[in-house]
Design brief:
Elements lengths: L13 H4 L13 H6 L6 H12 L7 H9 L5 H5 L6 H15 L4 H13 L4 H16 L2 H8 L8 H6 L16 E2 L7 E5 L5 H4 L1 H13 L2 E4 L9 H5 L3 H15 L6 E4 L2 H7 L2 H4 L7 H10 E3 H7 L12 E4 L3 H6 L4 H8 L5 E2 L15 H4 L1 H18 L3 E4 L2 H14 L4 E4 H10 L4
Helix pairs in contact: 3-6, 12-24, 18-20, 22-23
Length: 432
Amino acid sequence: MAASNLNNAEAPLQKDLDKCVHCGLCLNACPTYRELGVEMDSPRGRIYQMVQITTGQAPITDAYVEHMDLCLACRGCETACPSGVQYGKLIEAARAHIEENRPRPLPVRLFRWFIFGQLLQTRWMLGVAGAGLYLYQASGLQKFVRSSGILKLFGKLADIEMLSPNAETPFFFGQIGKVFPAEGPQRYKVAFLAGCIQNVSFARLNEATVRVLQKNGCEVHIPEEQGCCGALHVHSGRKEDGRKLARKNIDALLDGGFDAIISNTGGCGSTLKEYHELLENDEAYHDRAHAFVKKMKDVNEFLGAIELNPNLGPVPLSVTYQDSCHLAHGQKVRVGPRKILAAIPALRFKEMPMSDLCCGSAGIYNVVQSEMASQLLKNKMGYVNGTGAEVIVASNPGCMLQLDAGARLHGTGQRVMHVVQVLDEAYKNYSS
């Protein structure tokens, strides 16, 4: 579309673009620039292109779309930036701007409508999809498909299938709407956001999260009306879907008198903490969004800030920690996970070089940009293997799926666990 005819309702704001002074300190923090060495695939280069588009100096071209799509939105550049550029906000706006001005091919539109507009927003659909995935895995069909190599005949499908999550039955949907009492004296009343896909593929992680919170004096509420956080929608340029989901979660969780609203997913938590930006022009929800954000905590952040229940048994494992991009760079939470791991008896922690460099997961990036994601994962596993750790610990389910595939493809048989799962194991191993 010609530059003069663009709809700019979702375009990056000039005041945000102007914060970039083009110093280049972001370059080494950018996974795609480190890999390709191409200026237009660096944060500085992408911002330059955004300026050209939003000021009407250039039209939205295929090349522009490709450069924006290749970005992981890992926000490592935000940590490196001395000028406070909110790059995550910019890349999300650029993608939304593309979405409102560049109609995709009909099959792609239908696929995105189903995934973003239906599947992620509807529990029964997720349940049906989860049941299908469970049958595929439990029947032995997955094992046969992987061993036969038949998917290699269909291009990238084999790489994508390697990333398919396990369906963990029973699903967590049955726990939504329930209240779980604190163990011992109640210290906090908290709400837990169970997510969407986590209810199918990380049901045991959600259960472990509830148990750990209970152990630490929390009465845990899982409000019935909650839903998908909207992170995948916002990252993919579907900001109006994200706003709809934000309003739903604010209404479901804000007025319950909770001390904290807790997520166990780094990527979801980052978006949840930015609801006030997503709804900044919504008069009805502006103040409520700000109030919601003040209560939002990642589970590592919450546990790392309270007096942790010391009744921990030994967990004799050597572990390394992979920083979730959106937890480390988006939420600025780094100390909490390491503090928790340091409190566990017999645990041997081995810090990983470049622990906050993206593993290539990035929401659905490893599906739609599988070639780049695979290379980043291979690089990451080199750092992991160098630690000699037997367990890779992470704080984001998407990272866990990616790292699990990495351990199978490039690793030495490492297990992948969430910080909360390691802590849950320590509580189980305690004997008074």
